[in-house]
Amino acid sequence: MWNWLKAFAPPRTPLHGSPQRRRIKTYSADTGRVYQYVYEGFRRGNDGQEYVFAVTADRKNYVPVSVRVTAAATPPDLTPTERYAVAKLTLLRALDHRGLEQISEPIQPGSEEVGDILRQLDLAG
Question: What is the pLDDT of residues 95-118, one digit of tens each?
Fold first, then answer.
């Protein structure tokens, strides 16, 4: 019924870096809920990158979850692998604190959260 609205939506750039074989990973959140997620790929934007994951709590219905890692929040010398690690840990933290049901907008970590993640990964200078 609402398909005509898609004609007015801005075009989405395709995802890059998606794995050839999808690997389903399991995460037990601090709340006790168990989630499964799959990395779908990333999009480059003007201010950073958007990493897209498909996440499920029931192993049937996957929900796309985006994590935006902005250039302003991250050190310029991070490798692509380290940026992915920031995105993945941001996703897992959101599942710990909010749960999948409360994630409706893209998640965007601030510089303080990115710094905390980099310390956790022993990458902080």
Answer: 999 888 888 889 999 999 999 999
